[in-house]
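Board notes, transcribed. Complex of a protein with S-adenosylmethionine.
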Amino acid sequence: MPSSPNRIENTSPGTSFGLFWRRWISDPKGIGAVAPSSPGLTRRMAREVVLRAGEVVVELGPGTGTVTQALIKAGIPEDRLILVELDPEMHAFLVGKFPKALVLQGNAAELDEILPPRWRGRVSAVVSSLPLLSIPMDVRRRIADAVFQVLAPKGHLIQFTYSPFSPLRNAVPDLKSERTGFAAFNLPPATIWRYTTGGDGGKARPRPAAS
Ligand SMILES: C[S@@+](CC[C@H](N)C(=O)[O-])C[C@H]1O[C@@H](n2cnc3c(N)ncnc32)[C@H](O)[C@@H]1O
C-alpha cells in the first residue's frame, strides 16, 4: 500500500542515519552537526525537562528525533510534544516516527506565530538542537524572543552547543544562563545550557521588529 507523503514507515536507526547524512550533504550549515546527537547528550538534555500539568514541551530542530526519543524515554508523553523542524524531509520523517506528537514544519524564529494559540504561555520547556553557531546573532535573538514569548512563567530553554561559550550571550538582556551538562563523547563534545528570564515567560518584553 503506498504511504501518504507525511508518513514514512521505515523508521529504523539506519534510516535515521541515512537521512541525516543526506540532508547534511545537501545543507551542512543548516543541519549544523556532523553526526546525530549521541545518547549521552540526548539523555542529559532530557533530564533537564520537567513537564507540568496542562502544559507541553516544545522541541526545536529535532532532526532525526534523537532528543525526541530521549524525552519520551524520560517520561514525557509523545502526545505532549510539539516538534518544530525547518527541513521538509526531516519533517516528513518525524511525522512518521512520532505519530502522536504535533510535528510542525516551520522556522523556530517564528515559534510564537506557528505554535497553536492554546499552548502559548503553557510550554514547560523548549529543548533546542538548533545550530545556533551557524545562525546570525539577530536571528538568534528572534529565536530567543519567540521562545520566551511562549514559555510558561516557570519555563526554561535547554540548548546544546559545540562552543565553550553560551551561544545566546548578549542575545537577550535579562537572560539567566546556566551550564548544566557536558557530553564529552558526543561528536563533537557538547555543552548544555539552561536559560531563564525574569519569570514572566518573556511576555512583558516587546517583540523586536523583523530584520
Ligand atoms: C544539529 S541538527 C539536529 C540534531 C538532532 N538532535 C539529531 O540527532 O538528528 C539541527 C536541526 O535543526 C534544524 N533547523 C535548522 N534551523 C532551523 C530553524 N530555523 N527552525 C527549525 N529547525 C531548524 C535542521 O534542519 C536540523 O534538523
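The mean pLDDT is 87. Residues 149 and 202 are 5 Å apart (CA to CA).
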